[in-house]
């Protein structure tokens, strides 16, 4: 009886859901403007391909996803045993006595990054070698067994407190792969250990704003491959830190697909791609031939084939140095200002959030070379965006396909950069656009693009137009343009390149 009632209830829910979607597709613009689907939408079979594309325009971020997108600049801190061994991936057999920073200063990390415009720090609380930067109850392979602070130190706590003091958001990276844990490969046992570590981090250090997982996986001492219980990890995070976004192997934020700081020219936050946490997800991604590295993650053709769509925005991770951990031989290989600006335009400027890794040295401080480059980076961005050269760019514009709007440029000003933003709280919709400048009494092409999303930045040669014109050539429904801006990016000197 219970089974029959449950099935009938399921059928009724599907029917009601189908009617809701059809109403959304057929009612007036004003009525449907208030109907959105947070984070996820599974299509009923009754929909046509075109209806699925239109409905994709009504998938929106959760509040925590939207708050995360607004950060724009976040910092990765790779610091741990590898800092002192010179490795990138440790083997888990390192002596805890090797971990001994001589001048550890978490506040220096926070102030250097904050002055450069960064809004959050994500700390590698544990990397693949299994060495824990907090005095965990789950293993002796931690700072408690090191000489640092006479075994009384806690890196996670000091970074958390520094972030709190300076109003910087704080996140953690906890490597699922653990080359030190004896239980790794014995899946149920290790999952218990991992959940205990996760619980410690999520209950002892205040607010956690992002939990970052990668999918690194290997064989344990028993020769078996560990099977991670991702659903359980998600439940722990959601119950203990409901404000935290789950990134990379999480279901709130996805990896862009490379570690070079390069976003896609066409970057959709609405995509059928979901992290491969179980066999059904893996099968669906295979059916659609998509992965984190695929070039197309949100086209009309892909949506027409999809069964479910997600709001799953891109995070671009890259290191300021060749390596992810500090190596003294890389002190003269810190990325140039020109490289960092290019990365900014290809990440934040392509509808993504930039996660820039800055590895502290063996003192436990951000090296002077990195700190100086970050200072230059922050100053350049401040100079670029502090002087808005459009007079009327902040009026919201509801644009249909083919619509244009003109914006006045401050008289006599040179521009070489434009910014466009959609109100993603009302969906991501623009598929193509152009920007023209009124120069010598005629319209001249300045630049063009495909997607906009949260933010799109485009750079072109210096011009002095009286006004600019933005034309929306393709949109999945009425697009909500939140802001159009124009700026002058000063040229870089030879030594900055």
Q: Rg, please?
A: 24 Å
The largest sheet, given as strand count, sense and whether it forms a barrel, is: 8 strands, parallel
The CATH class label of the largest domain is: Alpha Beta
Structural class by helix and strand composition:
alpha/beta
Strand order of the largest sheet: 8-7-6-5-4-13-12-9
Shape call: globular
State which percent range the strand residues make up: 15-25%
| Count of separate structural domains | 2
Percent in helix: 25-40%
Terminal CA distance reads 73 Å
User: Can you tell me the CATH topology of the largest domain?
Assistant: TIM Barrel
Please provide the count of β strands: 21
User: Which regions contain 5 or more consecutive residues with pLDDT less than 50?
Assistant: 1-16, 26-33
